[in-house]
Amino acid sequence: MTERLETYMTELERLGRELGLDYYPVNFEEVPDSFMMEIAVYGLPVRMPHWSFGVRYVYQLVQHRMGHSRLFEVVFPGNPGQAYLARNNSVQENVLVTAHVLGHADFSKNNTLFRRSEEQLGYRIVEKAASHARRIALAIEEHGEARVERVLDAALALESHIDIFKGVERAEPAASRHPAPSPAAEEFQARFLDLPGEGENAGHSGDSNKVSGEQTVVEEDLLWFIANHAPELEDWERDIFLAVREESFYFYPVFACQIMNEGWASYWHARLLSETELMTSGDYVDAMKTHSDVVRPHAADNHASLSVNPYHLGFSLWGKIIEEHGIEKAFEIRANDDDFSFIRNYLTEEVADELKLFRYKQGKDGSVSVLDRDIKELQDVILQPKYNFGSPTVRATQIDVDGTLHLEHQHTTDGRGLDLDRSEKVLEYVQQVWRRPVRLETIDAKGAPKVVSLAEAG
Q1: Distance, CA of 198 to CA of 200 (rounded, Å)
Q2: SS3 413
Q3: Is the Cβ–Cβ distance between 373 and 387 less than 8 Å?
Q4: Is the separation of the CB atoms in 338 and 257 below 8 Å?
Q5: Which of these, 374, 388, 422, lies nearest to 221 by C-alpha position?
Q6: What is the pLDDT of residues 195-249, one digit of tens each?
Q7: Rounded Cα–Cα distance for residues 102 and 15 (Å)
Q8: What is the enclosing helix (H) or strand (E) of 85?
């Protein structure tokens, strides 16, 4: 890291705190582009090995080489935080990135959703992920790559299926701590006594509480449920499910606050660069060219983007909020909201018109027609992909005496059907670790009731 960049960093940190930013120390490190891409794809500097990350890496590499994607920074909240800067960036670009990271660091320390997640994970997600990776490497040595990969296939296929309201730490059912080598009917009866729905969820109402003489369940945290109730899951397999679950709790605030977080960081990098007295006019102009690329409302080159750029939308909304309500109100919103309340409360008709946001329909010939500018409908379109990590809501609802697991897609909540081919593949993964029949009730793309069922392998 050059002395010039370090001088700028020191000044930006001083100015940020003077203007009210409050964050844990951040360790900055310059790394090669290839390492930056690996971190961005895996989501963490060190993470459990799985083929799906390789697929994402190839996709990201192709996008990067075609000029459709560029990584300026990757930052991990914590105490201390960790930020990686691309070594090939210019000094001016990394000055802007430093200011951007300080905005992220302030957001993650003070936002309720981020803070709750980090408190549950001990502010050490990078170290936790490295520990997970080491334990999985040991499992591969002991049980073989093929067996471990099958368990990872199932766990990662369900990585979005957690219940953030129940927290990382949940009481383990006594039966799950001492799994029996061969599950007989009596053993399943013992497990039923500890099923969610008979205790903490007993008062939950909903159409998934089926009464059929079998023990019923209401559980959306499928990673936790399988880890604690799969009939023959071994300790090392359970460990993998719970490791994936921990990491999902880390990623949830990143996903649920993306518009707010990126917009906040963009607002602060623009403000810090404009108010610092250290930057030369030439460096400032070069840095703000990068700012324009980051918060542009449209895609690069000549291709108009019909999707929302979270940087642009968040930056614009924060600017309006601070202009109309002041910085103290902005600090309050930063602490208490997530993208759902942020968009509902502050994306008004006036702002939507100013940003030229609308609902549209794209024809088979590529033509685009505006459907309407109704603000509630527009908010729904922006927020719909953010519910439940963008995945359908699926509950475990029942275990039969023979061990058959019943799952139910909450399509009335999702308002959408499932890709049945993909659902069957995920069910195959689940069945391999459940080791009993698995049955999923859902609807197809046209809304017709469907059942996807897999019998126990012979």
Answers
A1: 7
A2: helix
A3: no
A4: yes
A5: 388
A6: 555 444 443 333 333 333 366 778 999 999 999 999 999 999 999 999 999 999 9
A7: 11
A8: strand 81-86
**Following CA atoms 224, 136, 143, 235 in sequence, which dihedral angle do they give, to the nearest 10 degrees?**
-30
What's the mean pLDDT in 79-108? 92
CB-based contact 136:152 (threshold 8 Å)? yes
Q: Are 261 and 254 in contact (CB under 8 A)?
A: yes
Looking at residue 22, what is its pLDDT?
A: 97
Integer angstrom CA distances of residue 254 from 4, 81, 123, 263, 383: 31, 14, 14, 13, 14
- The helix/strand/coil state of 393 is coil
**Token duo for residue 312:** 């642009």
The SS3 of residue 420 is helix
Hey, how many other C-beta atoms are within 10 angstroms of the C-beta on 169?
8
- Average model confidence (pLDDT) across the chain: 81
- Which amino acid, one-letter code, is at 12? L
Phi, psi of 28 (to 5 degrees): -100, 140
Check if the beta carbon of residue 24 is closer than 8 Å to that of residue 109.
yes
In this structure, are residues 339 and 313 in contact, taking their beta carbons and an 8 Å threshold? no
Residue 341, pLDDT score: 97
185 C-beta neighbours (distance < 10 Å), count? 9
* C-beta of residue 369 within 8 angstroms of C-beta of residue 342: no
- The mean per-residue pLDDT over the stretch 426-437 comes to 95
Spatial separation of the C-alpha atoms in residues 201 and 99, rounded to whole Å: 45
- Kindly state the DSSP code that residue 98 receives in the 8-state scheme: H
Name which of 6, 10, 41 is nearest 272 in CA terms.
10
Cα separation, 425 vs 417, whole angstroms: 16
Q: How far apart are CA 130 and CA 124, in angstroms?
A: 10
- Condensed to tens digits (0 to 9), the pLDDT of residues 301-322 reads 333 344 678 889 999 999 999 9
Tell me which DSSP letter residue 122 carries.
T
Q: Model confidence over 202-212: pLDDT tens digits?
A: 433 333 333 33
H helix count then E strand count, the chain: 20, 10
pLDDT in tens, 259-296: 999 999 999 999 999 998 877 777 777 777 776 666 76
Gap between the Cα atoms of 418 and 451, Å rounded: 11
Closest CA to 451 of 394, 395, 408: 408
DSSP 272-339: HHHH-SSS-HHHHHHHHHHHHHHS-SS-STT----S--HHHHHHHHHHHHHHHH-HHHHHHHHHH--H
Question: What is the three-class DSSP state of 28?
Answer: strand
43 DSSP assignment: S
Give the pTM.
Answer: 0.81
Give the single-character DSSP code of 45: S
Q: How far is CA 87 from the centre of its chain?
A: 27
